[in-house]
Specification:
32 helices
Length: about 1000
């Protein structure tokens, strides 16, 4: 039988309850978590303490419970060995906010952004600190440091105060005697609150003096630093991020992962977080990398040219859900558990033990079984942290159900919560030592400790003090030490502010690979190596024996300017043995891609060395992505870069690799707009099709293309491409077949493309036939037809003659179309416009202001539903604007905009001319053939001007055909978009506009 001992009285969570269970070393994964049936009643703290099963060489103490702590979500220890607990009692809904909408994943849109303390909406969250004052292992002193907080997820001490992650803010409270001495300082703002089981969390110090934290999958953020005018840094979904308090620098460390709620940093300074899915313990985060995430639900990667991402760490298949875990790197537990992962699994109600082993430049794990299981189904371990004595502390929210959906429905017990200590069976708990009272010299000596927590705390304290008197000791120790001590010493020197170029030159030659790794990382953090080190790094990278170091070299190269970064990349690309690595090839691609827009000449210069093309990573990873990247970007300059790459290819096989990348970029895209020299290069390699023949003016290809267009059995994609191509190829014999398509029973897509192509031909038949078909056209096809008819003077007269004859109703013509008609400055046209529409004026500014005020009241008067709102957006806005990577590209991408600012959004919609964003000014072009076009000039060079119209057409015009080009000062966005919508439709549209992430269809 299992034997259970209880030691000491249970006193409202202040006493410790000890559980020692003798049995199997580790229950199997299948057995773990089984116990009371669902719906079982909650147990008292004392009864719950008897429910655990643990290996016989462990003890488990219940050190805190309700009412002293409730809903513990995050644990941390300070330099005095005291336990800080964040009590997440306000969860799930922030105080003081009104829910406007909620999607199927329970992502909420609130009516406002809560203000920061001290003027915040008072909530129920508590930040408390707990102390063992006499060294008996029992926490007997409890202090509530902050009360009435509103959604606090984690805290850490350091730099003279308390850092509090209180989404949407990162706060700093200057402290004295455990009390704030002033109102908090807001260091960061803009973290999302759509989902409070996923918001910014798990704040902790890194060994480099940065604060690290993570950001879950179902929230978004637009982070700024108060007092600094800057463009917000956007995070859609899961990210690892960091902040440097002294330098006030915020940056994304890595993108992607699971629903991240936890940060682990091992002895080598590597970052990890858990995962809310299966078959992995989580993600090993490499600096600057992108990782898999739920793309449909959480949005695409921030960089559309990433062309790849890293997966979670490999693991044996097993039921799992561990959003956070720790790597045991101390001697407080039995020796056989050192280097093992202890992962909390709140759904299964257990703590899982896993071993970890290298997987090239990353790691993989293997589950060994549940190290802590319970027959009490209310046991919900949500955090686990190493303690100063080497034991592990576990936060238990103690809930019948641990699911955000249920919590939103009120299935939550805010009055419960426990904290446990998992330690060796024979562990003693001496009174904690206050490391803050140690001298700086003594702190340096603590860097030798076998306990990772002790080393990391000593490092942080040295960072607090910046005591330069210990530098001689540290410098000597750095070069006299190996392994962990050398790395700890490097970090300590950096924390004191003494790491510089001169020292870096020496540490790059250090025998310890982690010192070399961190040297380049610390230099890269400042975005520069210095000319001398940059020159040396070429040889260092070529000869570096450590794969982990080479991986960091590649990651840091992305942070450097092109002059320093690209030679380092080029050197690393010669390491053919890294072609099969889990990280290095993609890291090197990202380090190249970051320079493709602004330093493309330097990127091309790399490839002027023909020997580089023959290396495995270049052939397998870089070349196809490089061509795809420029082809996808699609500007005339990008296409010329594609031409240059084709010309530089040293062998035909390299040209074929490039061609494959080009073809990937152009799947589903028309080749209209490609320069002739690019067409020639592709043809040389055997690429191309009928479309390429049309572009080259080959009669046989033109005849075949017209036949294919007329044949309904030709694939829709191919028909559309060929039709569009005739708008550029200038082959007059295509006019009759294209006019037939406009009049025939064809799809809207075919008619739109045909009308767009016909605009290029100054043929009076076109105006007459389109006017004839006009009454039968609807929706977007009608809009393109209007654009065609106002494009030439003769067609405009034909159009207005039909209106005058009663064939077309005047009220069916939109205001922007009438304004375009007047651009011809033709007396006949002007008279007819005035006859049927009067003076062409829009609403006054005062009328628009009143309309904005009215609509604000409408939106605030009730809840909106984002699902019908998405359909309204698709119909009204998506032809011009992107939102969550879907829609058109005529106007600005709305995703990064501050879409929770309803009055500002309404102003832009109701009065689009009030403020036109730079780069989206409308221009008027008149060609020598008499064609008038309006749109946004998206590109121009010595040869062509590229215009994007309000219908989304991309028109390439040779410069020598343009008579005049003027900026109109009028937005392409029409007035009156919200006219005719019901109040509920307006609320629904804005519910969708304010959604932080992609909205999946209801299931």
């Amino acid at each position: 039988m299992n034997r259970i001992w209880l030691s000491g009285p249970f006193l409202a969570g202040a006493a410790a309850v000890l559980i020692l269970v003798h049995g199997n070393l580790l229950p199997s994964a299948e057995q773990a978590g089984k116990g009371t049936k669902p719906g079982a009643p909650k147990l008292t703290p004392a009864a719950a303490a008897k429910s655990f099963k643990i290996p016989d060489d462990f003890r488990m103490d219940q050190v805190l419970s309700e009412p002293v702590v409730k809903q513990p979500i995050s644990l941390s220890f300070d330099e005095r060995g005291r336990l800080w607990v964040v009590q997440y009692i306000q969860y799930p809904h922030p105080a003081g906010l009104k829910i406007l909408s909620r999607d199927m994943f329970w992502r909420v849109v609130y009516d406002k952004v809560p203000p920061p303390p001290p003027n915040h909406f008072r909530g129920k969250d508590i930040v408390s600190v707990h102390e063992d004052t006499d060294g008996d292992g029992i926490y007997d002193k409890h202090t509530r440091v902050l009360e009435g907080m509103n959604i606090v997820t984690s805290v850490v001490t350091g730099r003279g105060g308390l850092w509090v992650l209180n989404p949407p803010y990162l706060l700093f409270y200057p402290m004295k005697n455990d009390r704030p001495v002033s109102d908090p300082i807001v260091h960061l703002q803009g973290f999302g609150l759509e989902d409070t089981h996923s918001c910014a969390n798990s704040l902790r110090w890194g060994p480099d003096g940065w604060l690290y934290a993570t950001h879950g999958s179902t929230v978004s953020a637009h982070v700024t630093r108060p007092g600094i005018k800057e463009t917000p840094i956007q995070m859609i979904g899961q990210h690892m991020w960091r902040y440097h308090p002294e330098k006030r620098r915020f940056e994304i460390y890595a993108e992607g992962g699971g629903n991240a709620f936890g940060v682990e940093i091992d002895s080598q300074g590597r970052l990890y977080s858990g995962h809310n899915g299966g078959n992995t313990r989580g993600f090993h985060y490499v600096q600057g990398a992108s990782y898999r995430k739920g793309f449909e639900k959480h949005g695409v990667l921030a960089n559309p040219y990433s062309y790849g991402f890293f997966e979670a760490m490999k693991a044996n298949k097993s039921q799992r859900f561990s959003h956070t875990w720790v790597l045991n790197e101390a001697d407080g537990l039995p020796a056989k558990y050192r280097g093992k992962i202890f992962a909390v699994e709140p759904l299964q109600g257990r703590v899982m033990l896993s071993e970890v082993s290298p997987d090239r430049s990353s790691f993989e794990t293997k589950d060994l079984g549940g190290v802590v299981t319970s027959s009490d189904t209310w046991f919900r371990p949500v955090d686990i942290k190493p303690a100063p004595d080497g034991s592990l502390f576990i936060a238990d929210m103690y809930e019948a159900k641990i699911a955000h959906l249920g919590h939103n429905d009120g299935v939550i017990d805010r009055d419960t919560g426990r904290v446990y200590r998992l330690a060796a069976r024979n562990a003693k708990f001496p009174k904690p030592v206050d490391l803050g009272k140690k001298s700086s010299t003594e702190l340096v000596d603590l860097l030798k400790s076998d306990n990772r927590w002790t080393r990391q705390m000593a490092n942080r304290l040295l960072g607090d003090r910046k005591d330069k008197t210990v530098l001689p000791m540290l410098t000597k120790q750095l070069f006299a030490s190996k392994s962990q001590l050398a790395l700890e010493t490097l970090w300590a020197i950096h924390q004191t502010g003494a790491f510089d170029q001169a020292l870096a030159e020496k540490t790059l030659a250090h025998p310890e690979p982690q010192v070399r790794l961190w040297t380049i990382r610390l230099l890269g953090d400042d975005h520069r190596l210095g000319a001398k080190i940059a020159s040396k790094m070429i040889d260092i990278a070529r000869n570096e024996p450590s794969l982990f170091a080479r991986s960091q070299f590649a990651a840091s190269a992305k942070r450097l300017n092109a002059i320093e970064g690209l030679p380092l990349v080029q050197s690393l690309l010669t390491r053919d043995e890294d072609a099969s690595d889990i990280h290095v090839p993609l890291l090197l691609w990202w380090a190249i891609e970051v320079h493709c827009a602004k330093d493309r000449d330097k990127v091309l210069d790399m490839f002027r060395e023909s020997s580089l093309w023959r290396h495995r990573m270049v052939e397998n990873t870089i070349l196809p992505r490089l061509m795809k990247r420029f082809a996808m970007a699609g500007s005339q300059k990008d296409f010329q870069t594609c031409v240059e790459l084709f010309r530089l290819a040293p062998e035909k096989k390299h040209g074929q690799i490039l061609l494959k990348g080009f073809e990937e970029a152009f799947k589903g895209r028309s080749i209209a707009g490609l320069p002739n020299d690019l067409i020639t290069q592709i043809a040389k390699l055997g690429g191309g099709s009928v479309a390429f023949g049309v572009r080259q003016g080959k009669e046989a290809a033109i005849t075949q293309a017209l036949t294919m267009i007329a044949n309904p059995k030709t694939s829709a994609q191919q028909r559309l491409e060929l039709i569009e191509l005739f708008g550029e190829a200038r082959q007059p014999r295509c006019v009759p077949p294209l006019l037939m398509l406009v009049a025939a029973k064809e799809s809207d897509a075919v008619k739109k493309i045909a009308l767009g192509a016909l605009q290029a031909y100054p043929d009076d038949r076109i105006g007459a036939e389109v006017v004839k078909a006009f009454p039968t056209l609807t929706g977007e096809v009608r809009e393109v037809a209007e654009s065609l008819l106002v494009g030439r003077r003769a067609w405009s007269r034909q159009f207005l003659a039909a209106v005058d004859a009663g064939a077309i109703a005047p009220k069916s013509i939109a205001l922007p179309t009438l304004r375009k008609l007047l651009l011809h400055r033709d007396d006949q046209i002007s008279k007819l416009v005035k006859k049927h529409w009067g003076e062409i004026k829009g609403a006054t500014t005062e009328q628009m202001r009143k309309e904005v005020d009215r609509l604000v009241s409408v939106i605030n008067a009730g809840k909106g539903d984002p699902y019908p709102g998405k359909k309204i957006f698709t119909a009204k806005c998506a032809s011009c604007h992107l939102l969550h990577a879907r829609g058109g590209i005529v106007g600005p991408d709305l995703t990064p905009f501050k879409r929770d600012d309803v009055p500002a959004m309404l102003l832009h919609i109701v009065n689009p001319n009030a403020e036109i964003r730079e780069g989206y000014e409308s221009s008027i072009i008149i060609t020598e053939s008499g064609r008038t076009l309006t749109g946004i000039v998206i590109e121009k060079d010595a040869r062509v001007v590229v215009l994007r119209t309000s219908e989304g057409q991309r028109i390439v015009l040779p410069k020598n055909e343009i008579e005049t080009l003027t900026v109109s000062g009028i937005s392409l966005m029409p007035e009156g978009l919200l006219s005719g919508m019901t109040d509920q439709e307006v609320r629904d549209l804005f519910a969708y506009l304010r959604s932080g992430q992609p909205l999946n269809e209801r299931k």
